[in-house]
Amino acid sequence: MTAIETPDRETDYRVPALQRGLTILGMFNARERVLGMQDMAERLGVSTSALYRIVQTLVDMGYLQKAGRNAFELGPQVIADGFAYLASRDIVEVAMPELNALRDRTSLSCHLSIREHTDSLYVYRAFAPQRLTVNIPIGTRLPCHATALGRVLLTALGEAELGQLYQHLRLDDYPPPAPRTLPELQALIAQDRERGWVLHRSDYSTAIATGIRDHAGQVVAAINLSGADAVMDGPDAQGRFLQALFQSAAAISAQLGYVPRA
């Protein structure tokens, strides 16, 4: 008795034209920004006439654009769709696993904050259950200029923007090391921006913070490591913790689409 061959259900449901169109888009990369119709056809193992309608459809939809006679490059719709997806990802969703792993590696508490006006709003924490630890609840608001996380968030602003934000606010109600005047704040934030991280001590605890960047390279959030002075003090300890903090910040930023300049 001859067995009757049944088609693979997954294969049977495929749309060859769609598969070819997506494969074409995947051919473009940093090294190959422009491809000819013949190049695409050879890689797919089909004739150029078989690809013409697919390529034309991609051009009409903005996913490809002409770069010469029978040559094409990625179109603006690819960029727009990619950035829209990245922007839709919740910062907490992206940062949570990285901060949990950072806490486990360092045994220190980690916090994530975003800026709302002149406040640093804490939106996530990875709590280290130790006797001496720093535990700031989610939803807490602290003045940006008086915290490590907040100062990092302020580095996203230029000097003029910073001046406009604080022009009607008094700063001398906060104890040192918080800046007490606007020029002092502007000078401090300029130094923080150049350094790329902030260390802040208060109430027998120390926090080090750095920024999270989006696809445009803008600082959109900040993360920190915080713990007792006895744990955080010392150049060796700070250097080790700072390296771990930078690694986590880079991983989160990469998921938001940030690509460091070469």
Automatic annotation (TrEMBL):
Coiled-coil ranges per UniProt: none
MF-aspect GO terms: DNA binding; DNA-binding transcription factor activity
Ranges where the IclR-ED domain occurs: 77-258
Domain HTH iclR-type: 15-76
Listed GO biological process terms: negative regulation of DNA-templated transcription
Keyword Repressor: no
Pfam families reported in the protein's UniProt record: HTH_IclR, IclR_C
InterPro entries in UniProt: GAF-like_dom_sf, HTH_MetabolicPath_Reg, Tscrpt_reg_IclR_C, Tscrpt_reg_IclR_N, WH-like_DNA-bd_sf, WH_DNA-bd_sf
Gene3D superfamilies tied to this protein: 3.30.450.40, Winged helix-like DNA-binding domain superfamily/Winged helix DNA-binding domain
Keyword list, A-Z: DNA-binding, Transcription, Transcription regulation
PANTHER family linked: HELIX-TURN-HELIX TRANSCRIPTIONAL REGULATOR, ICLR FAMILY, TRANSCRIPTIONAL REGULATOR
Name the record gives this protein: Putative IclR family transcriptional regulator
